[in-house]
Amino acid sequence: MSEELDSDYWRAQLEALREELVALEQSGNDAGHTVELDQSRMGRLSRMDALQGQQMAQASARRRKEMMTRVEGALRRLDSGDFGFCFVCGEDVDVARLKIDPTTTRCIDCVER
After folding, report:
1. How does 17-53 read in b/e, with b if 16+ C-beta sit within 10 Å?
2. What pLDDT, on the 0 to 100 scale, is given for residue 2?
3. In this model, does residue 43 exceed pLDDT 70?
4. Separation of alpha carbons 24 and 107, rounded Å
5. Mean pLDDT of the 74-87 span
6. Domain limits of the chain?
7. Alpha-carbon distances of 105 from 32, 44, 47, rounded to whole Å
């Protein structure tokens, strides 16, 4: 990778992203709990809203878990010296692209193929 990449900068960016994901996970844990379907306590529309909220919380949790996996992978690549290189062609990934998504694993040419 070119000398433009400062591993300390990218490590700080990735660790900040990881901390943000952990904080979101902790705040989102309550929303994904099982919805009680007791008709005597809750109307039909309220249950539907609760089920929809539960599904949205579960989808958000899945996206956070996927992003956490990507962040951990980027940190491993940073440690091994492979950060910033395209998985497909081996060329440098543009720094501007990394600033948008530091977990990216492909250069723009390989993404568009």
Report:
1. bbeebeebeeeeeeebeebeeeeeeeeeeebeebeee
2. 45
3. no
4. 29
5. 96
6. 7-81
7. 31, 46, 41
